[in-house]
Amino acid sequence: MFASICRRRLLRFRQIPSAAGTDLSRRPNPIDALLSHGYSSSALAGIPLSKPPCPATVSYLVSCGLSPAAAAASKLRIRSTDKADAVRALLRSYGFTDADIAEMVRRTPVLLILDPDRILRPKLDLFASLGVSPRRLSTTPHLILCSLDNHLVPCIQFLRGVLGTESHIRDAISRAPRGLLASLEKNMRPTVATLRRLGLHDQSISKLIAVEMCVFMFSPDRISQIFEDLKSFDLSVTGTGFAHGFRVLCRLSRENWLRKLALYRSFGVSEGDLLKAFKKHPTMVLLSEEIITKKLRFYLDELKLELSDVMGQPVIMGYSLEKSIIPRCAVLSVLMREGKIEPNIKLITALLGSTKKFSDKYVLRFAYNVPDVVKAYEDCMFAIILASKACCDFPKCSVLMPGYPSCMDRRAAKSSGIQTETKKEE
């Protein structure tokens, strides 16, 4: 409609005679050119409109902690370093570290040209009043770009009605600050309505949003699909494990989720054992397929554990082989050799528990009478440090499995290209 009106007006303008009596029909008319070409915004796509990076801006961004490449790629132009300095000083006064500020500038460099007192301070005051830590806020600096009156305040007021207490609001934002970027009318209200339609009571909705506020970023269809998947695992919407299972599936695409289940089944895990394991420890499906394969092969092929035992204690899938399981195997091996513990010990039970609990029970307890137990533990921990710098062959524990290289031998292991895992023990 708008285009046709413009076309008619241009045609009418073309018919107006020249004041000088010039015959316009004999001269190239730019209006003819406009009308004869189907110009659109896409015609400008190939025209380089961006200006070359400003050296002063690049230098300043580098001083903020950005890499030279990232600084040069930024389209920001800092006209006043005084204002940018004031922004950084303001962020520091609210508890942001230089590393936090560097991350924020890398993600949203436009922060440096905002008015620190008029635009930034009121938003920082809001998050400070809620108790949201600067470290968590620095992971989603786009929140500081949101309108205070039109977005942040209305969304937080809505969350008060759903979550109930300020502490729950703080925890929800701290766990998933990105969820607060969701639109109140387009995302938050429809999400709560969808959860109610699917059978959740207000208390259950409050708990679910408190543990995974990113649910606001999902469509009603995706939320419904997650509910169906959890119900297929006999997780009741009113059960205590439903919210945690929901949080896990929010972090996986459905295709990825189905691949992880198929991988566990390929090792012979029955549907019943898989169901029980997921209920106990739903994060077992958040591990990469490579890590799942590596751990199951180690537990089944090297430690000779029963598959049912591993699935009966699925938390062991969250333990780092290099940082936790291998050093513990070395300690238990020494104690078995010295006759301090029975060879038929329930191995999976001995391997579980916190580092302090294991150390107290198996290392410090025997340190005086069996000095080798401390040496075995320290040697393996030292090997871990070396392995973090040069990837080692797939680890094996020599004393539990005779014939394999010891932790001391693994110090000199050559790099094989397999990255050591750095996942922390849960």
Summarize the structure in words.
- The protein has 426 residues and is mainly α.
- The protein has 22 helices and no strands.
- The protein has helices at 2-14, 30-36, 55-63, 68-73, 81-93, 98-107, 116-130, 134-138, 148-163, 166-175, 184-197, 202-211, 220-231, 242-250, 254-266, 271-280, 289-302, 307-312, 321-337, 347-351, 355-363, 371-389.
- Helix 12 (202-211) crosses helix 14.
- 26% of the residues are buried.
β-strand amount: under 5%
- Please work out how many helical segments DSSP would assign: 22
**Distance N to C terminus:** 62 Å
The assigned structural class equals mainly alpha
Assign a percent range to the helix content. 55-70%
* DSSP strand tally: 0
Order of helices and strands: HHHHHHHHHHHHHHHHHHHHHH
Query: What is the radius of gyration?
Result: 31 Å
What shape does the CA trace take?
globular
Q: Spans with pLDDT under 50 lasting ≥5 residues? A: 5-49, 389-426
Q: Mean pLDDT, rounded to whole units? A: 77
Largest sheet: none
Oligomer: single chain
List the domain count as a whole number: 4
